RNA sequence: GCCCCAGUAGCACAGCUGGUAGUGCGCCUCAUUCGUAAUGAGGAGGUCGGGGGUUCGAGUCCCUCCUGGGGCACCA
């Protein structure tokens, strides 16, 4: 029989009999490798060591030192071990799927009784016992009838359904972890003893629809995390604790920024500190947009349903709208209004006042528009997803020929704003024509090209998300990356020929005829609520000086210094700095601690030495060092820092 | 909307198998004037998310609604 030739990562080749497994290959190299091997990459595909190789191939044998492969196998095998543990503890539980995800895995089970947090402990314990059994993992390829019959006989309907969904030409692989068997495409470790019993943890149980479909049964999903060793697991758990500390809901309370309460779910009560940050951000955005040629407007919150019927929202968006019924005097029927969920129809009304000429275009109408949407109860989350929010919304009415330059200008504005707010990197996604759409292919070609050209013009890269555009036009989504690597979609730019048409927007062209303008929906922050949440988390509450609600606390050390403390506060306020005095009868240690915890960026301590020198002792948040500076010096420094980046 | 968990003083939490509520911080008062992350003492403060039920008796058990949290679905 002809030999096959395997090429190793170092370029060496060796011949083997066809059907040789990576395990045998590893054994032929050294007994230590055979022992350490966990899997192999054969021609770019990750396989387990039992995978027979029947043709010439490139092969790399992996050990636990190969991070990516090791983690994939650990997490994947733990999913199986967990499912085995669950079925051993509760034999009536039906199994479904259990994929590897970021940092771990999950497995979905069908069981009538809910899993409790205590159950997780029991499952974890059983998993550790299984790992200690060092059960061999083996695999077989089965034909479909056998697999289906097997699962039908075992009473595993979800597995049967899965098999029906697998393409007919794909081999069905069965894996055994000891006596426990599961349908799986692999790869897996050689025995359960290769799993790190002290480097995984079951995290939570949650409901999840079978196959992600809300019409299908709800299963119980158990999430776990796993790493190569105990230290990495500990590091991960520590990281989660750190992330929890920057949770905007927690910081919002600690810094006295805002609160939510049950009489107004999803609507924010802004406290003085939080509202200060909002106003600073809003003032900044107002200046930036004015410079960029936007005109600010203000439109109604409550609008009659007839406008929403004309705009199409009544049909498409009704269930997300807050409806307001009004008994009008003398009227036979109640008048139905809706709180606006979006600003666009109102903006068209402003545009429609007075006949517009092509000379008026592009017309950029901006509004910090307060909108209300009835979000489903389960989707709300702190400031990140609310029912009452304010968009930094604007609509640009323009001709088709102006789309490209408007888009380019928008990206540059957005980029500059993100930079000023501390976000250096963002990604652009271009969503193109969906299956169901209006307009001709030529229309779409031109507009999509205009957006692509605009992105190229400003020297940005982008990815295309085919078919994800709105039914009326393509859009750009802008995702910024925060300090801990999370991405947030904030900015958007959408091309819309539809709404101007529905609401009868027109302009008189050079030719003297009436034309339909395009409408560009765009936002940079998205919503103020959500963006403030992102800012708080990005900075872990330590907002840059210009945004910080309380910028300076002037803390007296002895009461004889009180008069000078107040003088320092007055000087700072005169210079445009948000300063307050702390002349309480407390020790300086206490004051420093309290204001540090409160994330005040600068504490100025004042004792008799400072009174005599007309100086201040400066302590910056996060530092333990203190500097002595003259009063005039610190006022000048802080007055500069207090200015928004566009005013410096 | 769906599944699970939770809802006790301003905040963070304790309160076992039902016997009528406790700790820390904060707050108030007094003393202390003390140089860079918590000075000491005293005091006030809760119809235990709402409603209903079981019970001689419910923060504790049951039902229901609301809100929050973790997910899933949703986000024209």
Question: Which labels suit this protein?
Answer:
ATP binding, globular, eight-stranded mixed β-sheet, Threonyl-tRNA Synthetase, Chain A, domain 2, 33 strands, 648 residues, threonine-tRNA ligase activity, ligase, Ubiquitin-like (UB roll), BirA Bifunctional Protein, domain 2, RNA-binding
Question: Would you write up a description of this structure?
Answer:
There is one protein chain. By secondary structure, this protein is α+β, with helices and mostly antiparallel strands. It has 4 domains: 4-63, Ubiquitin-like (UB roll) (Roll), CATH 3.10.20; 68-242, Threonyl-tRNA Synthetase, Chain A, domain 2, CATH 3.30.980; 258-301 and 340-538, 2-Layer Sandwich (BirA Bifunctional Protein, domain 2), CATH 3.30.930.10; 552-647, Anticodon-binding domain (Rossmann fold, 3-Layer(aba) Sandwich). 35% of the residues lie in helices and 26% in strands. It contains 20 helices and 33 strands. A hairpin with a 2-residue loop joins strand 7 (100-101) and strand 8 (104-110). The chain binds one RNA strand of 76 nucleotides through strand 12, strand 13, helix 8, helix 11 and helix 18.
